Amino acid sequence: MAEDSRAIVGVVCDRQTVDGVDYDAVRVRYLEALHLTAGVVPVLIPGGLTDKELRTCLLAFNGLLLTGAASNVSPSRYGGPKACASTLDLDRDRTSIAAIETALSLGVPLFGICRGLQELNVALGGTLSSDISEGEGRGVHVEDLSLPRDLQYAPSHAIVAEGNGHIAECIRRLNTNSVSVNTLHQQGIARLADGLAVDARSVDGVIEAVSVKEATTFAAAVQWHPEWFHVEDPLSGEIFRAFGEACHLHVKRKMLQP
Fold it and tell me: Which of the listed residues 187, 204, 214, 245 has the most CB atoms within 10 Å of its CB?
């Protein structure tokens, strides 16, 4: 693809306060996965933009990435209990949900990771559980913080492909229906939004991947973190390449528009 037609992907930032100073931030590993494996140019989307400004961005972009984060989606967004209203990022909530709605309306490819999956579910009317490990037969879905970072992000449980969505297709392109992924989340999907289809579940029933039913392009999300080992892990690479291909196709479609 010509250099001047390289796909540009917007990445929603987290709002963080360090030493009394506010920052809009994104972990570099997400940007590396986009640039090196998906083959796209990442551009950061700061918090605080108006809906009109976000639409201007997404008209210019060819994809949207919703990253994971330490913060949780505010329960006020889906009618959840205030008890789970800890570690919030209200700027991120507003920016992500508005960006999701705009991207889907414009047919811009979209990929959500961890918090991004939860944002996608909430944006389309679903709800979240504040502790996905609660309940009989549920496994532990949080990382062991005593381990080195690479081991925290190592595969820890199996997921099984379901349906025919984008992530399920990526799994089956590896000639299997089940793979192992990492798990670093306390929250997860409680009630699935009507506009989403399940692409994969963990063996204890937790929804691990979804696709947008009526989307005309790649619009999907995963609960695990494929960005960490995007070079080494076959499934992670497959997902980022599929997202990248959709973003490049979006470039071509825009070039053909009158």
Answer: 187
> Is 3-256 assigned to CATH 3.30.70.270?
no
Q: Would you give the end-to-end CA distance of the chain in angstroms?
A: 20
Query: What whole-number distance in Å separates Cα of residue 65 and Cα of residue 149?
Result: 22
CA distance 180 to 81: 32
Tokens of 50: 């108006």
Which whole-number Å values give the CA distances from 189 to 8, 31, 64, 173, 210, in the listed order?
29, 26, 21, 26, 10
CA distance 59 to 41: 15
**114 has catalytic annotation:** yes
Q: What are 16-29's pLDDT values in tens digits? A: 889 999 999 999 99
The residues spanned by each domain of the chain are 3-256
Whether 247 is catalytic: no
**Does residue 225 carry a catalytic annotation?**
yes
Q: Which one of 227, 230, 238, 247 is the catalytic residue?
A: 227
Residues with Cβ within 8 Å of residue 191, at least 6 apart in sequence:
126, 127
Coil, strand, or helix at residue 13?
A: coil
Cβ–Cβ < 8 Å for 10, 96: no
Catalytic residue among 13, 57, 114, 170: 114
CA gap 132, 128 in Å, rounded: 9
Least confident of 44-58, 85-99, 104-118: 85-99
pLDDT single digits (tens) 130-139: 776 555 555 5
**Active-site position among 141, 166, 185, 225:** 225
